Task: structure prediction
Amino acid sequence: MNAFKPVLKTFAISTPIYLYITNNVVTIGRIQGESMSPTLHSNDYIIINKSFFFDLFYSDLNKNDIIFFKNPEDNTICCKRIVNKEFDVIDSDYKIHELNTVPKNHLFVLGDNINNSIDSRKYGYVSEGLVVGSVNKKIGFIWPPSRWFDKID
Result:
């Protein structure tokens, strides 16, 4: 039993630290599908700044930021780019429900692959409260290694 004490102690200390970091600071996101092509591809793994951490140390979300959020229709996690923020007038091509101004505390998001993306054009504006985190553009990709030095714009 004494041989397992150091292992158990390490596990007991590291598990809460790991859980805190992945729930509040950063985590790894996996891209599923090609809606964010050519910027992000299916099965890319990237670093995500969690909302709690982002709110403490960075400014608000901005246009062109890539975010992960809960889909307002089915609560699945999606990855899209912010095109318009609250009170912005959206392009008439993307008008939603006859309302062409983004409501307060909401975002209008689109996939980079506009012809192959389910986004705000389908499910409407996304509440800022549904944002899980934003893509860390400085660290960026962690998998596949061939994309380690690619820039995320």
Remarks:
- The chain has three helices and eight strands.
- Helices lie at 5-24, 51-57, 120-123.
- The radius of gyration is 18 Å.
- The first strand starts at residue 26 and ends at 30.
